[in-house]
Design goal:
Elements (H helix, E strand, L loop, with lengths): L2 E7 L5 H9 L3 E5 L6 E6 L6 E5 L11 H13 L3 E7 L3 H13 L4 E6 L1 H6 L3 E2 L1 H8 L2 E4 L8 H14 L17 H19 E2 L11 H9 L5 H17 L12 H26 L4 H38 L1 H13 L9 H6 L4 H6 L7 H11 L8 H11 L5 H26 L20 H35 L8 H6 L10 H9 L11 H9 L6 H9 L6 H9 L3 H7 L8 H13 L11 H4 L3 H13 L4 H11 L2 H29 L1
Parallel strand pairs: 1-4, 1-5, 5-6, 6-8
Antiparallel strand pairs: 2-3, 3-4, 7-9
Helix pairs in contact: 3-7, 9-11, 10-11, 11-18, 16-27, 17-27, 18-28, 20-21, 21-22, 27-29, 28-29
């Protein structure tokens, strides 16, 4: 039976780096029963007899937060064979408080004094032998980033377990009757101060404070005026490296994220074509071909399409997190976010939502408070991700030809932020009344992260997305395929008799029937016809699918004659720029190129004329855009929500709030807009 070693420590002490170094890839992530706090376990990479459990980072064992309760309960009740407490050597006084509390439980303990390289850089020295003699437990100096001292650490742990070395009782308390927690805390700190004075040799004389490298950097990065501009530049570079097709403003130079995504999409397209040709050669039935190609492969393609972007984004995010910069961002933003019930840490996931909701939702896992995690996960779906932009551009170009198009899109972006603030305030007042987001933020020393640590963090998030969210995406994509490809005539033989296939066109499918049934619900919003309703539903596969679906459903406007006439006046260079091979018009490719390179880019102000009969006012068009902005995000994002919220009930509740919010906001826009236009 494996021997369990618990790994404890303050946030930013380097505990996760120690865990990754000791376990490597031999680890898995779950959750503690009943809470969304991570439960990370791994096997010691040099000896499979030892299982290492990474306890949540906490400053004390006082049972107030979920993290503190988990750590305290596990140490006291489960009694692991040994606890490794990782301490930041540059902030020894603060870290020793948790160490004393762990030792008071009587569980065998080994102290790992981390960041000894930074201690030396400051000119200080820690007498670990003196600490060991005073505390009665093994005290090992380590440098987790480089792995220095980790073998000695594990040897000390094994010796402690084998010899059953328990912490010696410390005579540090002056107890007179009943003593409250505050008094005990004061006595612990009194002892810690005395201990540090004896065991730590400072490079500066008493009263003299030496300005560190981190202090000098913070003069800029946390400056009252410079902090936000610097952060804006950092975030631009982060998003540019992930999503930009013209990286660093160089025309045609794809960012690492886009380049990797292009490679993956090309390989998947090649594989899809290979399977497609194989099915045709094997004489597969049309429904089987459509199931495999349009259902399964498209669903898997939706998952794979996100992976390169998620990987690049989270490698960069992990780099910033491990460097210590993200702690500064949270500190700077906390004053603003606290006004509507969240901590400053929520800013990063919400900002990432402007690029893509999936990594934004996954990023909520970095938040300390379970309340903040749940609310931020919900709000991330309101952000105007890049996939929603084609809807806005197409509708603005068609319905607002005589107005300020930029102002309309700006309004939608501002609307997402305004609604997010309002919903956050309401949820805090109703569901979390009286609960305050505690913001205890340590500003760690700046340090250069190791590639190994950054890679493990990024890989872990991508793997978790595939395992948890991938199943939801695939199942939902196949469900939409079934609804859009079949009708009752598919099963009574009528389709087979008339069309030699059991499949049907989308406008006669189950999805169309559902659209016609629910369309009256949207009538108060100004778009109570079935085709716009179906467009909303297919947008749950991917938001840009709204444009493609509407082009298909309004095929009378996008027929072969219209496309031929539209492209007729274009030169070879223009046709080539739109995607026609060698600049030659092709009827087979015209529809796809028109939807993806024209409608999505707002290039045809006269397009989809019949759509303007179903959505016949500006306020209804604006309401339609607002509904798509705020309603349930794509299935990939819902899958990520399920992964973070853990239960179907919570996920359904979050989706319900998003749908209700979208409906009410769209209703207000249509009603108020009718008074304006």
């Amino acid at each position: 039976m494996p021997t369990t070693i618990a790994l404890a420590g303050n946030p930013n002490s380097g505990k996760t780096t120690v865990f990754n170094a000791l376990t490597g890839s031999r680890q898995h992530v779950g959750n503690w029963p009943g809470v969304t706090v991570d439960k990370k376990e791994g096997v010691y990479r040099k000896d499979a007899r030892y299982t290492i459990l990474d306890l949540p980072g906490t400053y004390s064992l006082s049972p107030y937060s979920a993290e503190e309760i988990i750590t305290r309960t596990f140490i006291v009740e489960e009694k692991p064979a040994c606890v490794i407490d990782v301490l930041d050597g540059t902030s020894l006084e603060r870290n020793l408080y948790l160490a004393l509390q762990i030792m008071e439980t009587g569980v065998p303990t080994v102290l790992a004094i981390n960041m000894m390289d930074e201690v030396r850089l400051k000119g200080d020295a820690i007498d670990c032998k003196r600490l060991e003699a005073e505390l009665g437990v093994a005290v090992i100096p380590i440098e987790a980033r480089t792995g220095k001292g980790l073998d000695q650490l594990m040897q000390a742990v094994m010796d402690t377990i084998e010899t059953k070395r328990y912490p010696k009782p410390l005579d540090i308390y002056r107890l007179n009757g009943t003593v409250d927690e505050d008094t005990l805390a004061d006595q612990r700190y009194t002892y810690i101060t005395s201990l540090v004075e004896r065991a730590v040799l400072r490079s500066t004389s008493s009263g003299e404070i030496k300005e560190s490298r981190s202090d000098r950097i913070d003069k800029v990065l946390t400056h009252r005026f410079f902090a936000l501009p610097v952060f804006a530049v950092v975030m631009y570079l982060l998003f540019a490296a992930t999503f930009s097709e013209n990286f660093l403003f160089i025309e045609g130079l794809p960012s690492p994220g886009v380049a990797l995504a292009t490679v993956v999409e090309s390989l998947w397209g090649w594989f899809t074509d290979l399977v497609s040709r194989g099915l045709v050669s094997a004489g597969a039935a049309p429904w089987a071909y459509s199931l495999v190609v349009d259902g399964v492969l498209e669903g898997l393609g939706a998952i794979l399409g996100f992976l390169p972007l998620i990987l690049v984004l989270y490698l960069l995010m992990s780099f910033l997190e491990d460097s210590g910069y993200m702690a500064r961002v949270a500190f700077v933003m906390d004053r603003i976010f606290r006004r509507f019930g969240l901590s400053g840490r929520s800013f990063i996931p919400l900002l990432m939502g402007f690029g893509c909701s999936v990594p934004a939702i996954i990023a909520t896992r970095t938040l300390d408070s379970e309340k903040d995690r749940r609310i931020t996960t919900l709000l991330a779906g309101f952000m105007p991700c890049g996939a929603k932009l084609p809807i806005f551009i197409m509708f603005v170009s068609i319905f607002f030809t005589d107005g300020n198009k930029t102002l309309v899109i700006f309004f939608l972006y501002a609307l997402s932020l305004g609604v997010s603030i309002l919903v956050s305030l309401l949820i805090n007042r109703i569901a979390y009344k009286g609960q305050v987001s505690n913001f205890l933020m340590e500003l760690p020393q700046y340090r250069l992260p190791t590639l190994r640590s950054v890679w493990i963090h990024g890989y872990e998030k991508v793997k978790g997305f595939i395992q948890k969210a991938g199943t939801v995406i695939l199942a939902a994509t196949i469900l939409i395929w079934v609804l859009s490809s079949f009708n009752m005539a598919s099963f009574n033989g009528q389709n087979l008799e008339q069309n030699d296939t059991i499949l049907t066109e989308m406008d006669t499918s189950f999805l169309a029937s559902v659209g016609k049934a629910v369309a009256p619900i949207f009538k108060p919003l100004g778009f109570g016809e079935w085709r716009p309703a179906v467009g909303i539903a297919t947008g749950w596969i991917a938001k840009e699918m709204v444009v493609v679906t509407l082009a298909q459903l309004y095929s009378e406007d996008v027929n072969e004659e219209y496309l031929t006439q539209y492209f007729a006046g274009m030169s070879e260079d223009e046709l080539s720029g739109l995607g026609f091979p060698e600049g030659m018009y092709s009827a087979d490719e015209a529809f796809d190129i028109y939807t993806e390179s024209v409608l999505m880019e707002g290039g045809d102000e006269g397009g989809l004329r019949t759509l303007r009969q179903d959505i016949h006012t500006k306020q209804a068009a604006l309401a339609y855009m607002a509904f798509n902005l705020l309603c349930m995000p794509c299935f990939a994002a819902v899958g990520a929500m399920k992964r973070e919220l853990k239960t179907v009930r919570r996920t359904a509740g979050a989706v319900g709030i998003q749908m209700l919010t979208a409906y009410l906001v769209a209703l207000l826009i249509n009603v108020i807009g009718s008074l304006v236009w």
